[in-house]
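[Automated response] Your request has been received and processed.

Submitted sequence:
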Amino acid sequence: MKKSTLVFLVQLFLLSIAYGQKGLKTNLEKATHYLNIKDEVCFNFTAKTEQQVIELSKVLSYGHKTIDRSNLTVEAYANKTTFNTFLSYNLPFTVNKEDNELPFNPHEAGLSTQARSSNIMAAWDTTWDAYPRYSEYTAKMQYFANTYPNLCTLQSIGTTVSGRELWVLKISDNVNTNEGEPEFFYTSTMHGDELAGFPLMIRLIDYLLNNYGTDPEVTNLVNNLEIYINPNANPDGSYRLGDTDAITSPRRANDNNQDLNRNYPDNVAGLHYDGIYEDETLAFINFAKSKNFVLSANFHGGTELVNYPYDNAYVSEYTHADGDYYEYISVEYATNAQNNSPSGYMVDDEDSNVYPSPGVTHGAEWYRVYGGRQDFMNYYHQDKEVTIELSDVKWVSGANLPALWNYNRQALLDFMKQATYGLQGTITDQSGNPIRAKIEIAGHDRLNTFRLSNADLGDYQKLLKAGNYNVTYSAPGYIAQTIPVTISDNNKTIQNVVLTATTANPTGNNQSICDSGSVILTANGSGTLNWYETENSSTPIATGNSYTTPVLSTTTSYYVEDVISKSNVGNLDYNSNGANHTTSGRYLIFNCTESVLLEQVTVNAANAGEIEIELQDETTKVLNSAIVFVNAGLNTVDLNFEIPVANNLRLVGKNFSTGGLYRNNANVNFPYTNGSISIIDSNAGTSYYYFFYDWKIGNIKSARAQIDAIVNPSPIANFTSDINNLNNGEVTFNNTSNNATSYLWDFGDGNSSTDQNPVHTYMTSGEYTVTLTSTNPNCGNNQKSETINVTISTLGLTEVDVLDFKIYPNPFKSSITIQSETSNTLNIKLFDINGRLLISKEKITPINNKIELNYLETLQNGTYFMSIEDLISKTKSIKKLIK
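Generated structure:
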């Protein structure tokens, strides 16, 4: 929103009311007044030195106004305790009413220009120019879930200190199905008095749901993302005083007087300074742990810019590995907002001396913050999160909310689109099963900027600036792959990866049965064999070297994998031969000979609290980090650290708020080894064993081998016969057997055949028993016998023996030889059973008393008659032939 416009509206309102509480003259009196009525005061102070500014940042919560480096003027927030600490510095300060009292009725709708020119009945969720009451907010979120059940679901991720719900709405095209899509998160108003983003997030939800299916831009976002939106992360701060359903005197902190954006674990400053995490903070920590967000933003107010990591380190110290990507998407957001607003909106630039880009700043160059959510999400959850400041005026009046929406609508949508770009794909084993793998770029990634694929579907996303990268995909128990990829801005690069297991597949043979029954399948491997019904089943149906199937009537495939169990490693003496140790930063030194997953360790804590555990290499480079919450006494904590092949690795108790962790200083016997991990020393020498007991190492496994239970059907012999109606002795047999591959016919006249459908000619009339034996190689044979009656009549073609000659072979196949006793010239004719002339050879003279007829293979099997006429003796003979 145009800065001058908002300031003018606020000033106009202020001119119409009297200033503050009558009788409050000094700044101390004003501060005391606000501390008494709202437990918080916003004030401006002037420090003496920059070091003092840094020192007080650990006590006070600094606001969003630019710190004037020339006079060191700082906007700050304090509760009673921290304000008393501030007073001990004896620094000048001022308290302004406009910083501490809401100057308008936030629930009055209809005052915006859009509302006045519209026929719509004014309401906070129709004209969108007012803030909702808490009950209205809750009802609206429930309305969305009930009205669009196929597109959204509503979840309370926890409650505030005072019991209000922390609502998160999920939006996706198949909202109840995990489709392996990028997970995206918007959240607002973790500072309860920075209200502008609160109704904007509700309006964004409304916009997405109402435009799905008609607006291609919205439809594409909903179809390709899992979108999570939390409109208000600190409802206690927004609604806490007076009428608790209304916004009357909102404040920055929650109901425990804690600034929630200073309440997260910090990789530089460590655990929260007083060791207490607020209910709201814990809810968001647990929610982030349950997801794999690829991109997110949290909304604030008090200036106009996009702020990206790190908040806790200056550029001169170190930068985010993907700082160029952050600069790119932040400039895109700011430019979008600038293009859709009057001149002067979203142009604040707090790092212009380093990265000059209006509307964008690198966090710490603005002012340094420890315990912020942005750095927490980046460092501990590998999520690219930014902070978006929506307005120079902290309290945007309802009348200005529609304009603020118009300024930011396209920027909000385009920022969401970024989550659909970058490097994406799936990581599976050779059987197609998903793998939880690490995606990392050597020489590029640092400070936990790797990504992990999701274990349930193997999907992954990694957002990168355009360029060429060598990406390494690794997982314990698999051979790592490094693949070159090319990334272009605002586009998606798909790289699916199949990792090969280091464990060989189990071996086994298929087993066969006939018809139906149970089958015993066996396999061999080097570990425990798990049997599955499908290649992608998640639950084994049996364990061991053999599996007995249920009764089967069809061939069924089963799948077996070889699981190599890794024994636990480490000292088990976690409550004797030692004592509680209160010094953080201690570590164990170990070697790893094959990549494994360190799933869990056991710690013995003096009190309930938090522990920050780091995996480091021998140069102290951080390979992974985890914040774990423990109770007093023994705790088994989840780490899930991928341990690379390396020597002198370190498992470090970097920080803890438990009042100490148990350490052994007697009967320590290094090394502790299981063949993959060897714990060899501690930072204080081999006489001490620090903190981490009974390491649980994850199993590794092979791909799945397919073994079939083959059900072969037994053969069933059957046939029909067709006796030629010319009564020529010819019978055609039709084989109707099932499940057979070979056949043997016994025609009952001493002849046989292996043809599938033979034609047989009987030489004489009679009754014959025909037997068919049908066989398959797996299940033996089966016989069918049938009696047939054959009557032979030649239909006028009768054999006549006058001439002295022989015809052979008979039956014939492809040729016939006629042998005569004379060399007289002959006429030769061949007829079929119906008397049709097929071959005629006239005036043929035998050679050496022989005549050969060749190329007869084209004749069908059956009965034939040959007529031989002697042209000299004028005599004729007829012979019956069989093929």
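Summary generated for your ticket: The chain is about 15% helix and 35% strand. The longest strand covers residues 633-643.
If you did not submit this request, please reply to this message.
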